């Protein structure tokens, strides 16, 4: 792919590690490494995060966020910006909040070897599904 026809959404779809930027109450960015999954059809980025963490608290106060990903070389990058919706945490391993995390896992990684264990851990860890609705995507292909 040449830089002339580079689509940063392709890089979003391939990436399995990114940096999520949220906004602290002071207005300063807060950055966190995350494992994103880009649902290209819905134009939404999904990430499993934990309740009580800085990024979750920041997003509950201000839902604006950005996610940056790079390829293995580090020279080619893409950034997605948008508004986040948070689902969870759930208190019932079979409830809708945990079902949403199961759907995310299936899309991102396929089938889990023990869904009952996964569901129990999602409740115990107070996991939350972050859904970033992509409003803007930009990036650059510098090499390769």
TrEMBL record:
One of the record's GO cellular component terms: cytosol
Start and end residues of each Pyridoxamine 5'-phosphate oxidase N-terminal domain: 9-139
InterPro entries documented for this protein: F420-binding_dom_put, F420H2_bilvrd_red/Heme_oxyg, Pyridox_Oxase_N, Split_barrel_FMN-bd
UniProtKB keywords: Oxidoreductase
GO molecular function terms noted in the UniProt entry: coenzyme F420 binding; oxidoreductase activity, acting on the CH-CH group of donors
Keyword Oxidoreductase: yes
UniProt-listed NCBIfam families: Rv1155_F420
Protein name: Pyridoxamine 5'-phosphate oxidase N-terminal domain-containing protein
Native source organism of the sequence: Gordonia effusa NBRC 100432
